[in-house]
């Protein structure tokens, strides 16, 4: 039996189902992210696990116990928020000790536990400071410490890094993951930021419209998107519309000025409309060949802009049907703006989804 079980959990607000029939099983050693756009129901789902929100339907089980009717402080869970929510007129020490004072632990135990989180979160020397005397990263560490100090069975985190700049966020990602591994308790991490989810998680649940679109390993979510929504939301890719034109071992797809070859896929009929996604880093470039052949997965294009992103360069390419993007390591040969190129990719790198009729 998994450590956390969500069994048919739904939450209705007026006419809106913020969470809609969610089933999830999370293991004790796991770092799980709930990844989805704003308004998809991530916070509501997390608050239901925490006991801050009652599900309209369904049950929540933690460590074998049905906690659906239990208040937050009896569930052994802790939650860390984006806004840190530190007490401004209390020192770091008092902020960390606060949850333990609420639990009425003996003084010696409180000192030992605060000492423990001060140690693991590198807060030593800051105990007597007030929150406004701390950097953003230090404040977030204190917020994390306040979550961990009660030795929860589960730590729930709601966009805890959203207020930090990119560099600090990336440092904290490594740190948070390290603590989860060290503590051996599940972390359930809410974010709309795919980079955060991909950097830390064992598994990612993609949330859309209150439902779990897929719950799988981060590699599967990224490399084998199960739906068009996931292909669009995770990673960066170009999209082509086409019609299934034939093929047996490989599928041939014909679009407006483009011929695509993809691995064959069950359930697609001849003449069906499909959307094909190719991730930016899968699009390769070579100089245009004179009289360029009409080969599949090869597009004559022109370099419109080159965007430098540290170790990578992003090539925004114009082709007869619109734009596509190729992202390449800077260590590879560069193409100048205005250069004529051929953009090409492998059939295995095409993610294919039927295009549903409008209004369906
Ligand atoms: N207390 C509430 N009252 C009414 N509607 C709410 C309430 N909380 C959330 N919602 C609605 O539920 C949906 C999901 O919200 P939320 O869980 O906050 O999404 P997310 O965290 O993914 O941005 C949204 O449509 C939101 O407006
Ligand atoms: Mg939210």
Automatic annotation (TrEMBL):
UniProt GO MF annotations: ATP binding
PROSITE patterns given in the database record: ABC_TRANSPORTER_1, ABC_TRANSPORTER_2
A Pfam family recorded for this sequence: TOBE_2
SUPFAM superfamilies from the UniProt entry: MOP-like, P-loop containing nucleoside triphosphate hydrolases
Gene3D superfamilies assigned to the protein according to its UniProt record, in alphabetical order: P-loop containing nucleotide triphosphate hydrolases
Keyword terms, alphabetized: ATP-binding, Nucleotide-binding, Transport
Similarity comment: family membership: Belongs to the ABC transporter superfamily.
Protein name per UniProt: ABC transporter ATP-binding protein
Taxonomy of the source species: Bacteria, Pseudomonadati, Pseudomonadota, Alphaproteobacteria, Hyphomicrobiales
